[in-house]
């Protein structure tokens, strides 16, 4: 617990200082933080609760669209629309979960692809709702306390706050009743029921929380892009990337998804500027390497080794 | 003895097959009820039906005069059921302590409180020194005890033990028998499915014998073991 | 055309498209049935087949159907290699590992094609690409029919392999219960390699068969086919090879009728909705064995 | 086929040109990997041809021009990271990118950073409407292209009065470009008295167009106005022939302009019309010679995409020659005052009709005649007259 809080403190300290040290590498840092936040949110459901969703881009899109349309059509400030998006995402997650939580394992994952793809088609085709295929611009934003929300520095701090908030929530949850309920349901639903846990309710709560948090990050992403198109922001590829980030980093660990974001986004950026056309190929090879040599993800594997070492020591002593 | 648990006319069907047919039982606090029968007699099915893990065709279940027939398994747990699984089902990725914490959180609101409760139960079953070991690494006897610890940590009024003696070596078996007796001494109602006759005879206040889903005999351990139908059921069909 | 004629034509087209979808789906369902692995690179193997036909056509001037002779064994071999060196090493890891591995493979295939062939869409022009003939007033596309015939032959061959041969019995045994199969002396690792080889071979074959009709791009097309294959296999029943035909045809008919009589922009959604309904109410698929819901 | 892996690995930051003496560096954000790589390749060829020409002619007032090309992986967030690095590096201007989903965020960001931007490939109206003082586009947009198509239809109607052109059916992908082109098309159709008898959208990745084409066949349109993605025009055309959907005019945007289209569709490609910003046979001085150079560099048949890449860099070089490359303000002003003629088109950025920084380029209509792309419209730039009407499939 203390360790994690120190970790969070380090993240915040480094984060607060970052724009002053690297004022010209903010966009990539924003990507890392957003993916850290999304992957950590995803992990509440996918890692801690064991329900692998491949549809989280829906919530990113939801957040981005709430902010963009709220601003451009109704003049609503992003903090209001982000709160609305989070509430709406939770409601969507509730119904989505009600519909699909009777499915287990790969069937659940496949169903999330289907639901997300249907939502993508709705977002593209229902022009009255989303502005349609041609996308939406965010041309103006309010300036709270004179802060220009279009500046990368302001956006960086928003992304930092988002990632830190999500990680803090996971730290809080991991030690408490809900955190154990999540893991118990992941490990064995019957055994969880024998401990008095309602598996469906637990999964629904996890899905709703995960969805709401993801959509807040989506709202920030909308501001960063300032121009969003439905087929890009609702894309299956984005859903897959979010899941990938968490799994590569280490499912069901507090820092795994964030480490995954750092590694994947960082490596992606490095490969992009170094290998030109071959960059995605190298990226694919990186994924294979992690899967083959760190099957539990980077942090997952480290944590496991740590626990084993600790236990071995105690058994000796 | 006042009834803690009553089950009347329990019938379970899978497709066209009747796995349990019109079986009733009742149990008072501090009482130990043994459920025996040859393989495939429907013991575990009855067990699962009563605890809510298998759907019932008909029947009625009450816990402390409250009708719980239609409640899902986790709600029965919350009202006072604790159970073990025949093949142990620890949460493998969690440590021993965390396994019990999951159950302890049912009644404990705060982490510290839950931890105290869990450690207490682990002491009781003799796993306290293993608290921080991954559950995956336990041997069979310790996995059994972990199952028991999980069942006890929900602070049950009735505890359902599904073949917890099977496969234990003689010293471990003695320990387990003593432990179950201590549970009933604490006032817990115990329903146990068991193949080890030694344990049944020694522990049970009352025994129900199932064969092919039917209750064929009921009484004290002594009565049922001398019942001809029971002998026939064990020797004849199995 | 009268309404009924149009309906018949649409149903016929749906059934024929269904054959195409089934062809794309069988490899996936076979691999899932035996290995319990959802292969996210399946569509990329289909695309690999397409590019192999493009390559043989460009270098040797071969008709795509002729290039099957070379492409299928190569596909089988490639599948065995991928299984041996990658998937076999994650078979006992958490289930998401295999999913991740196939995602990595998908990225590698798509981008290797991109680097080799460039990003331009490719296809092979054959004289019969748009040929049709007419039965009872219903026009039938030659290429679609050929693809349909290929599907039927392939599924019949697979069925025979699974039910009539020693190796088929071993495959079914492994699918049923891997541990049990090992206990009776089946080398399940070898079976996994063979099955994945077959899966890739079927994917490659689908690609070669479809190239006269369709087109391929290195990174886009694969994902589209993978998604279609998922839908087909779930509709029919994941792991049930014969049912892939039923799933394919159901998808084809649902899509074509939806696009013909409702909004065409939601064409992809009709299949997905059918997919969801089947998942929710009959997770074993239309013709699959019952899946334990526990 | 090229074995490009080794080359790509070696091409760490594709810095092209001799870094010897004083030089002017231009940043390019281009889609070299991912879904739009096909276009990225073509744009890069065009940029390189322009670069060679510029440096052979003395560079920027004696200084070498260099290009730094960054891949955007066909996604906005990478493009934005690239833009940030260019903005902080002090490049006088940035050229980029293809898709509107990438170019839109780029334009927003560079405007706020006050970095002049020349649009490379995106043709979406939204990039220059309302636009910004920092964003310039020498190539066409949806409004111009749709208008060119309908001017062409009007032209055909007026030259062959015995062939009535009254009804139009529209088929388009649901991406940003196809949708906006279809929208503008529908507006023009009603404005100019055409009746829209078919209006169907489809999702990218669809491979079976028969249901839609059969629907259209029932409506019997005179004109087919199709806006496809790059890859699916081949399947659309093959299936159009298969179901026997006839029309007097068949226009297919995007895919029919690619050289590979003719190759892959064969004889069925004939008579198909498509709008482009440039063609080798257009009657501009130097067009043929540019074609030869593009072809030599590409190692294959070039298209108007290469020409657009060439155009973007020529515009940049012209502005840089007239400005102080150290001052982005002065580069922006020079760009705004652009007035040049290239073998691709004349460039003269205007602000009119709600657009800003948009070159009112004249789009061309190409028709595939005997397996070749031929410029057939506008009249004064055409190499051949259009072949009209398109015969029925059964008669071909």
Notes on the protein architecture:
The complex is a heterotetramer of chains A (317), B (238), C (294) and D (396). With 317 residues, chain A is mostly helical. Helices cover 78% and strands 1% of the residues of chain A. The model of chain A has no long low-confidence stretch (mean pLDDT 90). Chain B has nine helices and ten strands. Chain B is globular, with a radius of gyration of 18 Å. The mean pLDDT of chain B is 89. Chain C has 294 residues and is mainly α. Helices cover 72% and strands 3% of the residues of chain C. Chain C has a two-stranded antiparallel sheet. Chain D has 396 residues and is of the alpha/beta class. At the C-D interface, helix 1, helix 4, helix 9 and helix 10 of C face helix 2, strand 8, helix 8, helix 9 and helix 10 of D.
Provide tags for this entry:
heterotetramer; A: 317 residues; mainly alpha; ABC transporter involved in vitamin B12 uptake, BtuC; two-stranded antiparallel sheet; 2 strands; 1% strand; globular; B: 238 residues; four-stranded antiparallel β-sheet
Low-pLDDT stretches of chain D are 1-20
Number of domains of chain C: 1
Note the quaternary state here.
Answer: heterotetramer
C-alpha Rg of chain C, in Å?
Answer: 19 Å
Q: Give me the secondary-structure category of chain C.
A: mainly alpha
CATH superfamily of the largest domain in chain D: Response regulator
Give the amount of beta strand of chain D, in percent: 15-25%
Strand order of the largest sheet of chain C: 1-2
Q: Trace the largest sheet of chain D across and list its strands.
A: 8-7-9-10-11-14-15
Largest sheet of chain C: 2 strands, antiparallel
Q: Count the beta strands of chain C.
A: 2
Count of discrete alpha- or pi-helical segments spanning 4 or more residues of chain D: 13
User: How many discrete structural domains of chain D?
Assistant: 2
SSE inventory with pairings:
The complex is a heterotetramer of chains A (317), B (238), C (294) and D (396).
Chain A: H1 2-21, H2 26-46, H3 57-74, H4 78-100, H5 105-125, H6 127-130, E1 136-137, H7 152-175, H8 177-187, H9 189-194, H10 199-225, E2 227-228, H11 230-233, H12 236-249, H13 256-275, H14 279-293, H15 298-316
Antiparallel strand pairs in A: 1-2
Helix pairs in contact in A: 1-7, 2-7, 2-10, 2-12, 2-13, 3-4, 3-10, 4-10, 7-8, 7-10, 8-10, 12-13, 13-14
Chain C: H1 3-35, H2 42-60, H3 64-85, H4 95-117, E1 132-135, E2 138-141, H5 142-164, H6 166-176, H7 178-183, H8 188-210, H9 220-236, H10 243-261, H11 267-281
Antiparallel strand pairs in C: 1-2
Helix pairs in contact in C: 1-5, 1-8, 1-9, 1-10, 2-3, 2-4, 2-8, 2-9, 3-8, 5-6, 5-8, 6-8, 9-10, 9-11, 10-11
Chain D: H1 5-10, E1 14-16, E2 23-30, H2 37-56, E3 64-71, H3 76-89, E4 94-96, H4 100-113, E5 117-119, H5 125-128, E6 135-136, H6 142-159, E7 167-173, H7 176-191, E8 195-202, H8 210-219, E9 223-227, H9 233-243, E10 249-253, H10 259-265, E11 272-276, H11 287-298, H12 304-322, H13 328-336, E12 340-341, E13 346-347, E14 364-369, E15 372-377
Parallel strand pairs in D: 2-3, 2-4, 4-5, 5-6, 7-8, 7-9, 9-10, 10-11
Antiparallel strand pairs in D: 1-3, 11-14, 12-13, 14-15
Helix pairs in contact in D: 2-11, 2-12, 3-4, 6-7, 8-9, 12-13
